[in-house]
Design a protein that fits this description.
The structure holds 2 protein chains of 2 kinds.
Chain A (H helix, E strand, L loop, with lengths): L2 H15 L4 E16 L2 E19 L2 E7 L4 H17 L28 H18 L8 E15 L4 E18 L4 E9 L7 H14 L4 E2 L3 E7 L1 H11 L5 H5 L20 E4 L21 E5 L2 E2 L6 H7 L7 E2 L8 E2 L3 E4 L6 H8 L2 E8 L1 H4 L6 E12 L2 E14 H6 L1 E4 L4 E3 L6 E4 L2 E9 L2
Parallel strand pairs in A: 7-17, 8-15, 14-20
Antiparallel strand pairs in A: 1-2, 1-4, 2-3, 4-5, 5-6, 8-21, 9-10, 9-14, 10-11, 12-13, 15-16, 16-17, 17-21, 18-21, 19-20
Helix pairs in contact in A: 1-2, 3-4
Chain B lengths: L3 H11 L6 E17 L2 E19 L2 E7 L4 H15 L11 E2 L17 H16 L5 E19 L3 E20 L2 E7 L2 E2 L5 H4 L3 H16 L2 E2 L3 E7 L6 H6 L6 H4 L21 E4 L20 E6 L2 E2 L6 H7 L7 E2 L8 E2 L3 E4 L6 H6 L3 E14 L4 E13 L2 E7 L2 E5 H4 L3 E4 L4 E9 L2 E9 L2 E9 L2
Parallel strand pairs in B: 4-6, 9-19, 10-17, 16-23
Antiparallel strand pairs in B: 1-2, 1-5, 2-3, 5-6, 6-7, 6-8, 10-24, 11-12, 11-16, 12-13, 14-15, 17-18, 18-19, 18-20, 20-24, 21-24, 22-23
Helix pairs in contact in B: 1-2, 3-5
């Protein structure tokens, strides 16, 4: 059955069980993708997806249940299961459904036409040829691909809320593998947005030059140096530690930012913005996962923590208004908290000037293993890194297989310069992280 | 789920444009988890995942299509999308399906869905409060009890029509200890391919809580791990994540078939230290990563991947196997119907060796004992990997000394497996979730205590 039919069935089932306060969240998508190996399409895929999550308030507790099977039987089942699940909850935190009649900022989405299946395949194939053409060291294993998706979200609740969202997303990527005959190295470049202005050659060259730059990389020498994080590396760090800005984590003792709103937590030059309407985002949106209006705000303003990120529940506990940051990891998830486009604001010097300031040290181009080497509670990190040595204020020889270690809370205070080259990393979904290059002191590099 | 007749109809549509292979993977899965934090039951996740994925191959080309709509019309439409994307042509094969029964080598005594929320909460609380009340240092605890009832059906143009029901149960406790304004976490999260009987004789929830709390307490008092290159002894059980990341992923057909693995073309060659024998075994009864059949309907196998350092086998699925000229090894896995299947690990471990555990520690003049590993990741192309270490100690003059925190291990897979120069006798398995292109799947890692003669330790 369709979502509208399922919604009616759920309303009837809720009425039958005497449930008065409830919400139905529905997320659906249709997507296609093409991947190339050597000079042919290796895999083409096409998906049709939809899942519904029902949640209801029973004696102040919020029970959840969800399903991908939209049927009369499942409509009754999700309502009954959510009701039963509410019954075992013990938390005394008060839960809320958003009231109707909210005011939402108008959304300025300029929808672009999605590539047809034919265009998708042609773009992926052309992209692959561009990667091979970029350099003779490119080898098989290189992979270009293209994806397109229509994503939809609908939220309906018993307070009269009835929101709908739809957006088109197209993504093109190139993953280049190069070899000098002895060692392989790789890099990845991508772009989200209309294929009309897509320059596959430029993306191919970016991926290939990134992979080539890491050939014959040495292990960095152990020591304490000034460290420059590239936009990519810093955005990845921000993504690993974004949970420290969640009011829920703070309220539960899982973030050391608890009770520190209004205090200085970072260097004066640091401003951290959360923007649900960023024109660079693939999914700008004017309501959050609870249906509250979203808004742009400086989370850190010139070093001062102005606000944590809140949803309805944590805002009530904190005695503040929600910041519109309710989120769901997937349609079936409980409500949590996440930023939208979360990025450190650009400074006013070029990256070259930033490197000159560093003098000698290490340029971290990328960090990996964030789920293992970063502890979001303590802020401690020790991360596998790759990049370049900085000598005489310039990037020199490539280095890899070393770790950079420190503490994220300290890092925020030890940012001594910020470049102007702000970049958003993989802006494919509602949440994306961005940063310019930043110069940080007080970190430990462990290599040879 | 879907009748044999309907499968036949759908597969016939899928091959209508000339595919030489077609497959339906359908599932109906119940996911249920109860979560505690701040001493209270905080949330319950409860979802039904249901849908179907259809794949067609023509030579080395593959098309996948997936849908949530498993009605006849929805499935036919999905098959048509797959057939259309393959191109123009006419049916070259006909479909006959014969039902096949593989039996169940992983019997389940108590299906979790038949146990009330209240009973599950009681078990979770045993573990939760064992951690919470362990000492004054423990300031916060998170606990989860989850169970999964994953029903799959596979029908393909080779004639298979088979079903499997995969039930898994897991408890996970994270304890947070605070000392001098700094926090450290400890974690323990065992799981099995079992029902609620897991708590009768396999896993003691109280012990799980205590282990998480003890780890957090030890690490809260610890200084930072020194950085440098040194010998490292890696503890048994979850320590096996080092083989999983440093080596296992590079032995999957998903990278070997495309020439992007550090171990391409190395069958029969010495790729590891002669002390190393490594096995991927999907048939261990009731182990977390075990299966009866893989997600292409091939029975689970026990595969010796590396024998005394010599590379013997890769882990292969049907599609990538075509490119490699190899048969499937029962390694095809996917998180759910919406992902495209590829070759993945099941229960992967380094086999027991001949060194005494005491000798391994006493052989180290100065180094690190990584007692409990955290997660890790690898780039299969370069083989560069990284791991977090959840619980580590400095070894000095052959003795385990003070605990240190914040350690990580980095290196290159092909180097590190040559440097595993001592292998102990206390093989144990650890529970994990492995993320890759076909989604997040349950896998087991394992090993006895091992020594890596030298590896870069990240710390400060």
């Amino acid at each position: 059955m369709t979502y509208e039919m399922f919604k009616e069935a759920v309303i009837a089932a809720a009425k039958k069980l005497g449930i008065k306060e409830y919400e139905l969240y529905y997320s659906s998508s249709e997507g296609t993708s093409a991947e190339v190996f050597k000079h042919e399409i290796k895999n083409f895929s096409s998906s049709v997806f939809g899942g519904a999550c029902f949640r209801c308030l029973v004696d102040g507790k919020m029970g959840y249940a969800s399903t991908e099977e939209l049927s009369e039987e499942q409509a009754e089942s999700v309502v009954r299961r959510a009701f039963e699940n509410a019954g075992v909850l013990e938390t005394d935190e008060k839960q809320f459904l958003v009231s109707g009649g909210q005011e939402y900022e108008p959304l300025d989405i300029k929808p672009y036409a999605l590539p047809t299946t034919d265009e998708l395949i042609k773009t992926a194939l052309a992209g692959q040829e561009a990667v091979y053409a970029a350099d003779p060291s490119v080898i098989d294993g290189t992979e270009a691909g293209a994806e397109s998706e229509v994503a939809r979200i609908a939220i309906f609740n018993s307070n009269g809320l009835d929101l709908k969202y739809e957006n088109n997303i197209a993504i093109y990527y190139a993953s280049a593998v190069v070899s000098d005959g002895k060692e392989m190295s790789d890099d990845f470049a991508c772009k989200a947005g209309s294929f009309d202005a897509l320059d596959v050659k430029q993306i191919a060259e970016k991926a290939v030059s990134g992979a080539k730059a890491m050939q014959n990389a040495d292990v960095a020498p152990t020591g304490n140096y000034p460290v420059v994080f590239s936009p990519k590396a810093m955005a990845n760090m921000l993504s690993a530690f974004s949970g420290i800005f969640s009011s829920e984590n703070a309220q539960k003792g899982l973030s050391l930012l608890k009770g520190r709103e209004g205090e200085k937590i970072a260097a004066d030059i640091v401003t951290l913005v959360d923007d649900p309407f960023s024109p660079e985002s693939a999914m700008p949106i004017n309501f959050d996962a609870e249906g509250s209006p979203t808004r742009k705000k400086n989370v850190i303003d010139k070093g001062v923590l102005t606000t944590l990120l809140y949803n309805l529940k944590t805002a009530a506990i904190g005695g503040v208004k929600t910041t519109g940051n309710a989120s769901k990891a997937g349609y079936s998830s409980n409500i949590g908290i996440r930023p939208f486009t979360f990025s450190i604001s650009a400074g006013d010097i070029t990256e070259e000037e930033l490197l000159e300031k560093a003098g000698s040290g290490v340029y971290i181009n990328d960090v990996s293993g964030l789920h293992a080497g970063a502890d979001p509670v303590s802020g401690d990190f020790s991360l596998q890194s790759s990049g370049f040595m900085i000598e005489d204020g310039r990037k020199t020889k490539p280095v890899k297989s070393f770790t950079v270690a420190g503490n994220f809370y300290d890092l925020l205070k030890n940012i001594t310069a910020i470049a102007s080259n702000a970049e958003l990393r993989n802006p494919f979904g509602i949440t994306a992280f961005g940063s310019p290059s930043v110069l940080v002191t007080g970190l430990t590099v462990a290599g040879k | 789920m879907i009748s044999r007749e309907l499968c036949k109809k759908v597969l016939s549509v899928a091959v209508s444009t000339g595919a030489d292979y077609a497959e339906i993977f359908a599932e109906h899965t119940l996911n249920h988890s109860i979560n505690m934090i701040s001493d209270k039951v905080d949330s319950v996740n409860d979802s039904v995942v249901a849908g179907a994925g259809i794949r067609v191959f023509k030579g080395l080309r593959s098309v996948s299509a997936s849908t949530v709509d498993t009605t006849e019309a929805g499935l036919i439409k999905c098959a048509q999308r797959a057939a259309d994307a393959l191109g123009e042509g006419s049916a070259a094969i006909s479909i006959e399906l014969r039902e096949r029964l593989f039996g169940d080598i992983h019997p389940i005594k108590t299906v979790p869905a038949s146990v009330s929320n209240a009973e599950k909460v009681k078990i979770l609380k045993d573990g939760y409060f064992a951690a919470r009340n362990h000492s004054d240092l423990i300031k916060q605890v998170r606990g989860t009890l989850l169970d999964i009832d994953h029903n799959i059906l596979i029908a393909n143009s080779e004639g298979i029509y088979a079903q499997d029901r995969q039930i898994r149960t897991r408890i996970a406790i994270t304890a947070v200890a605070e000392k001098n304004g700094e926090t450290q976490s400890g974690f323990c999260g065992p799981g099995r391919r079992m029902g609620m009987e897991m708590f009768e004789h396999e896993v003691d929830a109280v012990k799980v809580g205590i282990k998480a709390a003890e780890q957090a307490e030890i690490m809260a008092g610890a200084g930072y791990c020194p950085a440098g290159v040194m010998p490292v002894a890696i503890g048994n059980g979850f320590g096996g994540v080092i083989f999983h990341e440093a080596c296992g992923h590079s032995l999957e057909a998903s990278s070997v078939a495309y020439g992007t693995s550090q171990f391409c073309g190395k069958l029969g060659q010495q790729i590891a230290n002669p002390k190393v024998t490594a096995i991927d075994d999907g048939t261990i009864p009731n182990a977390w990563g075990s299966i009866n059949i893989d997600d292409e309907g091939t029975p689970a196998q026990r595969k010796v991947l590396i024998e005394k350092g010599i590379l013997k086998m890769y882990m292969v699925d049907k599609f990538n196997g075509r490119r490699m000229g190899m048969e499937s090894t029962g390694s095809a896995r996917r998180e759910d119907y919406s992902y495209t299947t590829t070759s993945r690990m099941t229960n992967t471990f380094i086999a027991e060796g001949s060194d005494d555990n005491d000798d391994i520690i006493s052989s180290m003049e100065y180094g690190l004992y990584a007692k409990e590993m955290g997660g890790g990741s690898v780039n299969p192309t370069t083989g560069e990997f990284n791991f977090g270490v959840n619980e580590a100690y400095i070894v000095r003059n052959g003795k385990i000394c003070e605990p240190v925190r914040g350690a990580s291990l980095v290196g290159k897979g092909s180097d590190v497996i040559m440097k595993i120069d001592m292998v102990g006798k206390n093989l144990d398995l650890g529970t994990g979730m492995c993320g890759s292109s076909s989604g997040s799947i349950p896998t087991t890692v394992g090993q006895p205590l091992i020594r890596v003669s030298s590896i870069t330790v990240g710390g400060r």
